[in-house]
Amino acid sequence: MTREVFVHSEVEDGICHVRLDRPDRLNAVSEELYADLEAVLEGVAGYPTVRAIVLTGEGRAFCAGADLKAHADRTRTPAERRAYVWAGQRICRFLQQMPQPVVAGVHGHAIGAGAEIAWSADVVIAAEDVQFRLPEIGLGTFVGGGVVQRLPLLVGHLRAKQLLLLGRPVSGVQAAAWGLATEAVASERVQERAVEVARELADQPARPLRLAKQALNRAGALTPDEALTYEAESLLECMGTDDWERGVQTFTDDRGDREGR
Predict the structure, then answer these.
(1) Does the entry feature the keyword Isomerase, yes or no (predicted)?
(2) Which CATH number fits domain 7-202: 3.90.226.10, 2.60.40.1510, 3.90.550.10, 3.40.1390.10?
(3) What is the pLDDT of residues 118-136, one digit of tens each?
């Protein structure tokens, strides 16, 4: 018997639109939702014609985190618990390491795993009134998605402790001010703005964009010498490509136009 699918995707003009689609549970994560999202991301990663990804949630929320009702309704075996936990970790790793840039359009609520998924994107377009929250500690559980490493880099240790240890909510406006969101817009503009930014990214040359994303993801782990080496090797990889030739020609043409005025 086929089950309901909780993640839908479509590609339009080089942008893959990925939608969490479990609105009756505010897109709360489950084994099935994780499996559907992983399958979509695996498929998209291998398609060079997809230049950017937009990730959103159907209904009133981006993602309300763990489905606590499902947790209460059944007891998982140790093996099932491990599979569930690592499914969530794989999703965040996938988003962080996708060759294409990922833009998350976040509205309503991004709680627990929902916040962790959103913060795994490269660009976060947040509704001004969205609520980001990490309530795990207060619920007797623990965070995921690499936030114990990423949050201090984004907001500093004291604010990271406020978010993790106290589970304080953060609005979209506050998230943008703290560096947890790229920008905050009116709720009705989240989807539109996420697509606009994805279009900007999709129009960039793919190779240097991918190399830059990889470098920034490794920034905290690179020594100054390693960073210099990575930059040099990345530049050498880009030189001589069609994108490089077009960029040089465009720069030369623009400079000639300015000097001719």
Answers:
(1) yes
(2) 3.90.226.10
(3) 999 999 999 999 999 999 9
